[in-house]
Design a protein that fits this description.
- By secondary structure, the chain is α+β, with helices and mostly antiparallel strands.
- It has a single domain, classed as Small Protein B, Chain: A.
- The chain is about 35% helix and about 35% strand.
- It contains four helices and eight strands.
- It has an eight-stranded antiparallel β-sheet.
- It starts with a strand and ends with a helix.
Length: about 160
C-alpha cells in the first residue's frame, strides 16, 4: 500500500530520481485516464514512474512509460502495462506547458502518482535537466545544510 500524505492523499508511486536529475521549476496536479483494472492495481500500490515522461501531442497531454502491472484478480483481457495514458489539464495549462517546452527546452516529468479523495492524480513538473556537476553541487549543498542542522541540534 502507499503512504499517507496530506489529508485524504495516499501516494502510490513516486519518482525520487527526478528531483536529483532535474531542477523543478513548477508543478501541476493532473488527472489521469485509467481503466478499471489499472485503478485496482494502483490501489494495491503497484506502479513505477522510473521510466515515465509526459508529452504534449496535438493539444493533449500524455503520460508515457509509466508501468502499471495487470491486476491479478481482474479480467482475462488485461491492459498493456506500459501504454500512453491521457493526462487531464485545463486548456490554458496545456498551452503554458507547450510554450515552456518549445521556448525554454524544458521537460515534463511526473513526480508522483497518488489518490486524493478517491481520484487518481499525477503530480507533473515542468523541469530543467541538470548536468552532472550541478548534481554534485546540489548533493554538497544538501550535506552542508544537514551538518548545520545537526550542529544546531547539538547546541540546544
Amino acid at each position: 500500500m502507499g503512504r499517507k500524505d496530506r489529508e485524504g492523499e495516499q501516494t502510490v508511486a513516486s519518482n525520487r530520481k527526478a528531483r536529483h536529475d532535474y531542477t523543478i521549476l513548477e508543478t501541476f496536479e493532473t488527472g489521469i485516464v485509467l481503466t478499471g483494472d489499472e485503478v485496482k492495481s494502483l490501489r494495491g500500490g503497484r506502479a513505477s514512474l522510473s521510466e515515465a515522461f509526459a508529452r504534449v501531442r496535438e493539444g493533449e497531454t500524455w503520460l508515457e512509460g509509466m508501468h502499471i502491472p495487470p491486476y491479478e484478480a481482474g479480467d482475462t483481457k488485461a491492459h498493456l502495462p506500459v501504454r500512453p495514458r491521457k493526462l487531464l489539464l485545463h486548456r490554458q495549462e496545456i498551452a503554458k506547458l507547450t510554450d515552456a517546452q518549445q521556448q525554454d527546452r524544458l521537460a515534463l516529468v511526473p513526480l508522483r502518482v497518488y489518490f486524493t479523495h478517491g481520484l487518481a492524480k499525477v503530480e507533473l513538473a515542468l523541469a530543467r535537466g541538470r548536468r552532472s556537476h550541478e548534481k554534485r553541487q546540489a548533493i554538497a549543498e544538501r550535506e552542508h545544510q544537514r551538518e548545520i542542522q545537526q550542529e544546531l541540534g547539538r547546541r540546544r
